[in-house]
Specification:
The chain is an alpha/beta fold and 274 residues long. The chain has 2 domains: 88 residues, no CATH class; 158 residues, Rossmann fold (3-Layer(aba) Sandwich), CATH 3.40.50. 54% of the residues lie in helices and 11% in strands. The protein contains 8 helices and 7 strands. The strands form 2 sheets. It has a 5-stranded parallel sheet. Strands 2-3 form a two-stranded antiparallel ribbon. A hairpin with a 2-residue loop joins strand 2 and strand 3. Helix 1 packs antiparallel against helix 2. The longest helix is centred in the first third of the chain and has 26 residues. The chain starts with a helix and ends with a helix.
Length: 274
C-alpha cells in the first residue's frame, strides 16, 4: 500500500509538469495535482506510522482516512459516469439556435479546446445552414479580444455567414454563458417577430388563421466533458429542453479536464446553479 501511494504521488507530480510544459503554468486548476501528490505522501507516511505503532494509534484514525478516500473516489466515479453516460443521444439536426461556449483566447490565437469547438460548429452549420450560432464569451483580463469575437473571426474565415452569428460578449462563466445567451436568443426572436409584424405579406382576408409561435429548439455545443454541466445549468436557467452537441477534447489534458469538471459540477450543484 505504501509504495502504491508513493507511486501515485510521483505520477501526479509528473502529470503536473506535463500540464505546465504542454499548456502553461497558468492552466486553471493545475495545482490540484500537486495537492493530490501531497495527500498521497501524507497518507503513505501515516500508513507507515500506523503499521509501526498500531498499539498507539486509535483505530478510528485509519478508518476515517480510508473512508474519506473511498468516498472521494466514489463521488468522482459517479460524477464522471453522469458526465459521459447521462446525456441521452438525441437528433440535433436543424436546431434553431446553437450556443457555442467560449474558451480561453491567447495572444497567439485561439486555444486547441476552442478550435475543436469551432471546427465542430463549422461542421454543424454545413449540414444545418438554417441554424443560428450564438457565440458566447467575454474578454478576460489576459485575453487580447473577447472570446466571442475571436470565434466569429475564425468561423467567418472558415466560410460561415456573418448573418448566421450572434455575439454574446458579457459572460465569464458557464452559468453566465447560458444566461446571457438565452437573453440574446430572446432578443433575436423579438426582432424577427417585430419584422414579421411590420412587413406583413399580402393575404386574402379570412384566408388564414393566426397560430401561436412555434417553440424554438436550442442546443449547446462544447467539449465532451463539459456538455452535461452546460445542459444541467441551461435547464436550471430557463432552457428546459436543450440539446447537447459535443466535440472532442485534448487527449493530453483530458484527465485534468475531467477532474476540474468534477469539482465544477459539485460547486455548481452546491450553490444552486444546476
Amino acid at each position: 500500500m505504501i509504495w502504491i501511494l508513493w507511486l501515485i504521488a510521483v505520477i501526479c507530480v509528473i502529470y503536473y509538469i506535463v500540464i505546465v510544459v504542454y499548456s502553461g503554468i497558468t492552466t486553471s486548476f493545475s495545482l490540484i495535482w500537486l495537492f493530490f501528490a501531497a495527500i498521497c505522501m501524507l497518507l503513505a507516511g501515516g500508513w507507515e506510522t500506523y503499521i509501526k505503532h498500531k498499539d498507539k494509534v486509535p483505530l478510528w484514525v485509519p478508518v476515517s482516512a480510508a473512508t474519506m478516500c473511498c468516498t472521494g473516489i466514489l463521488v468522482f466515479a459517479v460524477v464522471e459516469i453522469l458526465v459521459f453516460t447521462g446525456v441521452a443521444v438525441r437528433d440535433t439536426s436543424n436546431l434553431d439556435y446553437v450556443i457555442v461556449l467560449g474558451a480561453k483566447v491567447k495572444e497567439t490565437g485561439i486555444t486547441k479546446s476552442l478550435k475543436k469547438r469551432l471546427d465542430k460548429a463549422v461542421e454543424y452549420v454545413d449540414k444545418n445552414p438554417g441554424t443560428i450560432l450564438v457565440l458566447s464569451g467575454a474578454q478576460g483580463e489576459d485575453e487580447p479580444v473577447a472570446e466571442a469575437e475571436a470565434m466569429r473571426d475564425y468561423l467567418i474565415y472558415n466560410g460561415v455567414r456573418e448573418e448566421q452569428l450572434i455575439l454574446e460578449t458579457c459572460s465569464f462563466s458557464t452559468v453566465e454563458n447560458i444566461a446571457y445567451s438565452r437573453v440574446a436568443i430572446e432578443e433575436d426572436q423579438a426582432r424577427k417577430k417585430a419584422n414579421r409584424l411590420n412587413s406583413p405579406g399580402i393575404v386574402v382576408p379570412g384566408a388564414f388563421e393566426e397560430v401561436p409561435d412555434k417553440p424554438i429548439r436550442v442546443g449547446v455545443l462544447t467539449s465532451d466533458f463539459h456538455v452535461f454541466r452546460a445542459q444541467q445549468i441551461a435547464k436550471k436557467w430557463g432552457i428546459p429542453d436543450i440539446y447537447g452537441i459535443s466535440c472532442g477534447s485534448d487527449p493530453v489534458l483530458f484527465l485534468h479536464f475531467c477532474v476540474r469538471e468534477c469539482a465544477a459540477i459539485l460547486k455548481d450543484k452546491l450553490v444552486g446553479n444546476m
